[in-house]
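Figure-free illustration: sequence to structure, shown twice.
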Amino acid sequence: MREGYEGTGPGAITPDGCAVELYSRLPVGNEPDIITAAVPAGARILELGSGVGRTTHPLVERGFTVTAVDESPDMLERVQGARTICGPIESLALDETFDAVLLASFLVHTGDPEVRRGMLRTCLRHLAPGGSVLIQREGENYHTEVPRERVDPHGFTIRIAASEPLGDGTNSVRAEYEFPDAAWTHTFVVRPMTREEFEETLVESGLRVAEYLTEDRIWVRAVPVEG
């Protein structure tokens, strides 16, 4: 397990503390709708950090060609209908480009700045001319309105139990998931960024914000600085 990361609960746990069985249970959110509205029909999509394919599968069903990348073979075993590649995002180097690159799941907030830069370089390196990078960033109050919880209509509870500063610009976050028959926890390290810091981070990596796709500015469409 990586330092600062921990996961508990039934089933396989990945090195960053994610529970495979948990993510197989979580329902699909509005991500497929946001992505579909932001990229051309039938686009070739590189999905970085696909997990078990919660977003992958709806995109495939909508006619997109998806290449799903994740460092966990246990996660990728659950992905269907897409090409899968197992390995770290930050070192990915495919000899091809894509109409759209996805960096969701708040991965841009990874605690290690070098890993974050590597991820964004991967996005830029695999982007076809005229393409877009779609990034999911944290909400404005993600680390201040804690603890908080939400009861999902599907019958489980998601709780952000703590977000504690570690003293180096990162926070240790503990999330809890309670189902009627099982429970999981996930502790992980993230680097909070204001909107200005996020935009500066993109520019440093050769990208810029083209538009915010949602009113809460959580979903972003980015393009190359020179584009």
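We now fold a second protein in the same way, so the two outputs can be compared directly.
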Amino acid sequence: MNPRLQSLRQILPLAWPVFIGQLAVLAYSTIDTLLVARHSATDLAALAVGSAVYTSVFVGLMGVVLAISPLAGQLFGAKRITEAGDSLHQAAWLAIFLTVIGEIILWFPQPFLALSHAEGEIAAKVRDYLRMLGIALPAALLFTAYRGFNTAVSRPKAVMALQIGGLALKFPASALLIGGFTLGPLHVPPLGAVGCAIATAIVMWSQLLIALQVLRRDPFYAGFGFGTGGLHRPRKETLTRLLKLGIPMGASVLIEVTGFTFMAIFIARLGTTPVAGHQLCANLVAMMFMLPLAQANACSTLVAQALGARDYAAARRLGWHGLEIALAIAFVLGALIFSLRGQVLGLYTNDAAIIAAALPLLGWVWLFHVADAGQTVSAFVLRAHHIATMPMVIYAFAIWGLGLGGGYWLAFGEHDIALPRLMQGAMGFWSAASVGLAAAATGLGLLLALVHRREVPRHRD
């Protein structure tokens, strides 16, 4: 069998449930964006800033918790089933601790509001939005541990089912709370962006409660030691391993996402219409990103399991072929979206001013998406090898330095030369972000090639 076809046949069964599940999760924000865009421009601007802040906080903490995936994946591949099960308990303790840090930031978001220059009604809406999401945060991080564990043991459908169920609950909840409703004596006024946050909290806690029942009742998990009873006691050795891998992972994810979300915060300085246009493009790019993210998860799982089984040839083959496949698919998808960009934006809104603000930004989507696919798959495969510190350094230089720093300079800096229009305002941020992602993809790809050249990849039992 052709080696690439063999790799594709191994990747696909794990990738498609992750893709569907993550697409369902992204649909939460898509639904919010569509509904709020039709509610008011002020609430849409508040949603753009508020979601950027929450995403920046959540994904950094999420990245630390997701250290369970490469850890449990190698243990599962090595047939150390009980230890793999205990790693979920330890990841849950880690999620609880990180929740405290996240809550403090969400309840006191003044630094983010200052960066975005959000004032008055928009600032008030952002504060209320973030505090409501603070209710969702504990459940979201604990569910992240559940998701990471299931990915590691090749059971992504268990997560996908809950994420699709969450979407079925999210749409009516957001629709009712954003626009308000009256049901008998109960009257809920229109809540706009804040209604989105309340709906998210309802979904997150519902998912977590069902996930706990699945762990206890599904026979698949019996061998892992999930039965009645509560959490195992914290284990210093396992928590140390999670933190040693998770902190640079979380920092890398934080750098990657804040390089993007801080674009919204800075673009908000340009006015309500530019940030609303950016929000539409950001949501579209995030939706496209779900495909390489699913492939990255599948590749990371297979590589980690192969390393645990000491099948180093399979680990190298799956990692490299996964990257090649992801880049090819991203190129085709990017070309399709670029050619249909006008029609795609029309699906979001009929507001001509917002479409006019968003349309020029989509010129960078093609390069942005291909580079995003390359850096994501490379980073996930490196994590399966328990390599996370060097990728963090690459991310900091490429995404914060070239991307965010370059974008800020193009948009707000004083220039001795006249810049072309494609480098001004919001366009400056998007052009620099695309270049930064391309640099990250190149650096991580070269690092992955170096790892693959080693006869025995670095990893710990």
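Summary for the second example: The two ends are 31 Å apart (CA to CA).
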